[in-house]
Structures are given as C-alpha cells and as structure tokens.
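During the second year of the project, the team shifted from modelling isolated chains to modelling whole assemblies. The rationale, set out in the original proposal, was that interfaces cannot be judged from single-chain predictions alone. As a representative example for this report, we include one of the complexes processed in the last quarter. Its constituent sequences, exactly as entered into the pipeline, are reproduced here:
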Amino acid sequence: NAGVTQTPKFRVLKTGQSMTLLCAQDMNHEYMYWYRQDPGMGLRLIHYSVGEGTTAKGEVPDGYNVSRLKKQNFLLGLESAAPSQTSVYFCASSSDTNIQYFGAGTRLSVL
Amino acid sequence: SQQGEEDPQALSIQEGENATMNCSYKTSINNLQWYRQNSGRGLVHLILIRSNEREKHSGRLRVTLDTSKKSSSLLITASRAADTASYFCATETLSGSARQLTFGSGTQLTVLP
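Output from the structure prediction step:
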C-alpha cells in the first residue's frame, strides 16, 4: 500500500511563480487535508476537504487554493509564491475515525 | 492558534529510561491523539484517547487524559534510540467542524544510546 503520496518532494520557486502540489491517497478516505509546518512549530491547517468536489478553508488559507476533483486526489496551488510560503507542506487523509495518515512532505523554498 | 501545547519542548534521556511528555489544551475536546515525526518524515499516528477515557495503553506507550485539567501525558517506557523523534499532541474539538485536528508545537525527544 502506497498510503499518501506527495509530489514533488522538493521545489525551489522564485517570488511570483506559481506551482501545484499533488497529493494522492489509495485508502478510499473521504477527508483530506493540507498543512504547513514551520521550524519549531506544529502543523497549521491550510485547507481541507470532506469529500470529492468539496473544499474549505483552514487556519491559514491566504495565498493558497485547492481542488478535489477526484476522491483520491487533493491539489494545493500557490498562485503567486512569496518568501513567507517557504515551508514544509504535508498532505493527510482520514476516514470517520479522524486518525490522519500523512505523506512524506514537500519542502518548498521561495526565493 | 495553538490548541495544544507540549511540555517540555525538548527532552534528552538515556536508553532504557522512561520519557514523559505533557500536553495542555484550551477548549473541550472530542478526543486527543499523539503523533510521532521522525526527522524529515511525515507524522505517524500513535494513539487516540477519547474524552470519556482516562488512560490508554499501546505496547510501551501509556497515555493519560485529565479533562478537568485539560491536559494529557504520553509515557514511553524503556526507551530505545529508535524512539528519537518529535512527538505532537492533536486535539479534535467539540466546536470544530469537519473532523479537524489542531496540533501542538511538539516535544523533541532524544534517546542517547
């Protein structure tokens, strides 16, 4: 079982560039989440989805957009990257138990 | 905002000793979970304790929950070098929606061989 797969693993952007982070899960989970983790801090929720075709804002949604066109995929987009978006991004998925399964993360640097 | 705050921020012990980490939170919860994160990796779920439970065990892990004090503790017994990681508590709150978790800032545990 692959579980939760994130691509890419690393990326360097210049300020103003755009990119999309991909998350795929093979556990048939309804719920999917995008978090960011900054040094010395826990995870902060960016956006989440409660099912195919749905998205909702989390704690820190500004500067990000998401889409969930298929149940197994959750995409996180940065329209115009800023240095403040330098972080490690984690995708997670869960079923009704709310035990979350995480991907390995994407390390993003914005110069 | 941080719902859960772990204490201590960092802990260093010798292999074979027990490690205790604490988590405090602010609002009423449905359940509290502990996760582990090895350096450079994603988080891995360890254990979930519901608001009506006081103690739970899983292998070398023991979790307690005191809802009157809004606090939880994670005890790792007979620690091993492989237990070196960051440990996070996460709360599912009653006022939250769509099964969100709020994570604390973590305790960095180092187990010295």
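The CA atoms of residues 29 and 95 of chain A lie 5 Å apart. The longest strand of chain A covers residues 87-94.
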